[in-house]
Design goal:
CATH class of the largest domain: Alpha Beta
Number of domains: 4
Radius of gyration: 30 Å
Number of strands: 22
CATH architecture of the largest domain: 2-Layer Sandwich
Strand content: 15-25%
Structural class: alpha+beta
Number of helices: 16
Largest sheet: 8 strands, mixed
Shape: globular
CATH superfamily of the largest domain: Bira Bifunctional Protein, Domain 2
Length: 586
C-alpha cells in the first residue's frame, strides 16, 4: 500500500510508530537547519520534519518541493515541541527518513487555502483544485452525510428507493425542458426530467406505495443563487394518504435531519399557514418566521386625511421595527431608496417614529393630528421606542415591496441568523393562476395537483377560487420542498386539463400514458419533493447551492471547466438529421 495512515489520523499516542503518509504539499517552511512541510489529504494536515544536520540530502530534496506536489513520506511519529491545537494532528509531527515524489505540480492558478486569491470564475474553471480547499471539501462531506441520513430514515419507515429514467417524454408545462434528439428515431426528441412526477405516480399505480429517490432533475430556466440547470431532489410519493399523513411523515424526516446533522431537537409540530394568510401578513408564500414584523393593514386608518399618497392607494400596510425610533434621516433615506429600486418598485416610504419619551413624529404630520398618529400606533401595537414603516399603492406590489423591506430590516437588525431555524408548512395554494398574455390558466404547481374536495364544484365556474390540496415546507424564508395530494380519478384529471386549456386530443398526446394507467385502479396518493441542494446549503449556513455541488454551472448556465455548452461536430448533426439555425445579426 502507498500509505499506512492518513494525514488526519495520527495522535500523541502514536508517538514512536513508523508510518507512511501520502498527500499534497500544502506549504513548506525553511528555518535554518530544519525544513517543515505541511502534508494534506482529504482527512487533514500532518507536519513533516526534515533535518539538515542528520540527513542533508533528504532535507535538500524537501526544499525543492513545490506547492501541490504529490509525495509519499516515510518516517517516525514524535511529539511536537510547538503544538498546534487548532488541528487534530497538531500534537505530533513526522521525522522523515524517506521521501518520494509521486507527481509534480505546476504553480496553481490560485492559492489553495481558505483565504484564496481566486475569484469565482477562476475557481470554477479549476474546480478540481477548488475542491481541495477545506471549506469546499467539507461542503461535499456535508452533502454526503445528508444523503446517507435521508436514506437511513426513509428506509426505516418502509420507503423503497426506485430509479426512474432520465430520457422521458417532453411535457412543456412550467419551466422549459432540456431536449435530447434521438438518432434511432430521426426528428423525435427525449426530454430530461424536470422531476419524476408522472413516473412516481405510475409507481403508485404499480402498488409501490412508498417510493423515494435522491434524483437529478433538469430545468432550462434563468439562474440565481439557489438555482442550477441540473439539481437534486429528494423525491417521494405515498399511496392511501391524505394531506396530513404526508405532512406528518416528512415533518418527521425534517426533524430527523435537524437532529442528526445540526444536533437540534425540534419537538413542537410545525405551524401551518394558509397561502392567503402568508401573502396578507408577510407578502410572500415563503415567509421567514425567525423574527416578527407581521404586516398590519392600515388602509382604513390612513385614508380620508387629505394625504394623496394614502387616499389614492388601493392598499396601505406597515411593519413595526422594535427599538428603532432613533433611526437617523440618513437611515430612513437609505430604506426609501431600497424600496424604490426597480426590482421592488415602490414609489416611496412613509414613517412614524414613536419616541422613547412618547413623542410622535411622522413623514405625514401635516395631514394627521396627534390623535390620528396615536390611533396608528395603537393599530400597530407599537410601544415607545418603535419605528413604524408604511408602504402604499397597488395591493400586490405593496405587499411584495413590504416583504422585501421586512427582510431588509430583519437583516439590519441581526434577526436572520443562520443558526436559528423556524420551519412551517404553507398550505391551500390556489390551484391555478391566470396568465394575461396567453389568456389561459396555468397550474400553480403542476397539472396533477388535486383540488381541495370542497372546491371541486368551482372548477368550471370559477377556477381562480379553487384551492389546491398542496403544501410547501418553508424554513427561514426558503422553500425547501413542496408537494400535493394528486388527482387519481380519470374524470377529474380530464376536467383539470380542460381548465388548463387542453383539448382532449392534446391531453391524450402529452399525458395519455398516465390517463391510461388511471383506468387500471389508481390509488389515492400524494407526495413531496425536497430541494436536496437547498437542504445542504441551509445546513451549511449559506444561501448559494452552488458551493455544495461538486461541479456546478455559472449564472449563465455554463460549465467553464468543461467549456460547455459547445458546438458538436457536423457528422454528429448529420447522424441526428439536425441543422443549426444561426442567430440573425443585429
Amino acid at each position: 500500500m502507498y500509505r499506512t495512515h492518513t494525514c488526519g489520523e495520527l495522535k500523541i499516542n502514536d508517538a514512536g510508530k513508523s508510518v507512511t503518509l501520502c498527500g499534497w504539499v500544502q506549504k513548506s517552511r525553511d528555518l535554518g537547519g530544519m525544513t517543515f512541510v505541511d502534508l494534506r489529504d482529504r482527512y487533514g494536515i500532518t507536519q513533516l520534519v526534515f533535518n539538515m544536520e542528520t540527513n542533508p540530502d533528504l532535507c535538500g530534496q524537501a526544499r525543492k518541493l513545490g506547492r501541490e506536489f504529490v509525495i509519499r513520506a516515510k518516517g517516525t511519529v514524535r511529539e511536537r515541541s510547538n503544538k498546534n491545537l487548532k488541528i487534530p494532528t497538531g500534537e505530533i509531527e513526522i521525522i522523515v527518513n524517506e521521501l518520494n515524489i509521486l507527481n509534480r505540480s505546476e504553480i496553481p492558478p490560485f492559492t489553495i487555502e481558505e483565504d484564496t486569491d481566486g475569484g469565482d470564475e477562476l475557481r470554477m474553471k479549476y474546480r478540481y483544485l477548488d475542491l481541495r480547499r477545506n471549506s469546499v471539501k467539507n461542503n461535499m462531506i456535508l452533502r454526503h452525510r445528508v444523503a446517507q441520513e435521508v436514506r437511513k430514515y426513509m428506509d426505516s419507515i418502509g420507503f423503497i428507493e426506485v430509479e426512474t429514467p432520465f430520457l422521458i417524454k417532453s411535457t412543456p408545462e412550467g419551466a422549459r425542458d432540456f431536449v435530447v434528439p434521438s438518432r434511432m428515431q430521426p426528428g423525435t426528441f427525449y426530454a430530461l426530467p424536470q422531476s419524476p412526477q408522472t413516473l412516481k405516480q405510475l409507481l403508485m399505480v404499480s402498488g409501490f406505495d412508498r417510493y423515494f429517490q435522491i434524483v437529478r432533475c433538469f430545468r432550462d430556466e434563468d439562474l440565481r443563487a439557489d438555482r442550477q440547470p441540473e439539481f437534486t431532489q429528494i423525491d417521494c410519493e405515498m399511496s392511501f394518504v391524505e394531506r396530513d399523513d404526508v405532512l406528518d411523515t416528512f415533518e418527521g424526516l425534517a426533524k430527523y435531519l435537524f437532529k442528526k446533522i445540526k444536533g437540534i431537537e425540534i419537538t413542537e409540530p410545525f405551524p401551518k399557514l394558509s397561502f392567503n394568510e402568508a401573502m396578507e401578513h408577510y407578502g410572500t408564500d415563503k415567509p421567514d418566521l425567525r423574527f416578527g414584523m407581521k404586516f398590519t393593514n392600515l388602509t382604513s386608518a390612513c385614508k380620508g386625511h387629505g394625504f394623496i399618497p394614502f387616499d389614492s392607494a388601493e392598499h396601505i400596510a406597515g411593519i413595526r421595527a422594535e427599538g428603532c425610533s432613533e433611526y437617523s434621516r440618513k437611515q430612513i433615506d437609505e430604506l426609501t431608496e431600497f424600496v424604490r429600486r426597480p426590482q421592488i418598485g415602490s414609489k416611496g416610504l412613509f414613517y412614524l417614529r414613536y419616541g422613547k419619551d412618547g413623542s410622535l413624529k411622522s413623514s405625514f404630520d401635516k395631514f394627521f393630528t396627534p390623535g390620528d398618529l396615536g390611533q396608528l400606533t395603537s393599530e400597530m401595537k407599537a410601544v415607545p421606542g418603535d419605528l413604524i414603516l408604511i408602504l402604499a399603492g397597488d395591493k400586490q406590489r405593496t405587499l411584495t415591496a413590504l416583504s422585501e423591506l421586512r427582510l431588509e430590516m430583519g437583516s439590519r437588525l441581526g434577526l436572520r441568523t443562520s443558526e436559528k431555524f423556524v420551519p412551517l408548512w404553507v398550505v391551500d395554494f390556489p390551484l391555478v393562476e391566470w396568465d394575461e398574455e396567453t389568456k389561459r390558466y396555468y397550474a400553480m404547481h403542476h397539472p396533477f395537483t388535486s383540488p381541495r374536495p370542497e372546491d371541486i364544484h368551482l372548477m368550471e365556474t370559477n377556477p381562480a377560487k379553487v384551492r389546491a390540496n398542496a403544501y410547501d415546507l418553508v424554513i427561514n424564508g426558503v422553500e425547501i420542498g413542496g408537494g400535493s395530494i394528486r388527482i387519481h380519478d380519470t374524470a377529474l384529471q380530464k376536467l383539470m386539463f380542460r381548465v388548463l386549456g387542453f383539448t382532449d386530443e392534446e391531453a391524450e398526446a402529452q399525458f395519455g400514458f398516465l390517463l391510461n394507467a388511471f383506468r387500471y385502479g389508481a390509488p389515492p396518493h400524494g407526495g413531496i419533493a425536497f430541494g436536496f441542494d437547498r437542504w445542504v446549503a441551509m445546513f451549511g449556513g449559506q444561501d448559494s447551492i452552488r458551493d455544495f455541488i461538486a461541479f456546478p454551472k455559472n449564472n449563465a448556465g455554463r460549465d467553464i471547466m468543461l467549456d460547455t455548452p459547445s458546438p458538436i461536430l457536423d457528422r454528429q448533426l448529420e447522424e441526428l438529421m439536425l441543422s443549426i439555425k444561426k442567430p440573425e445579426k443585429e
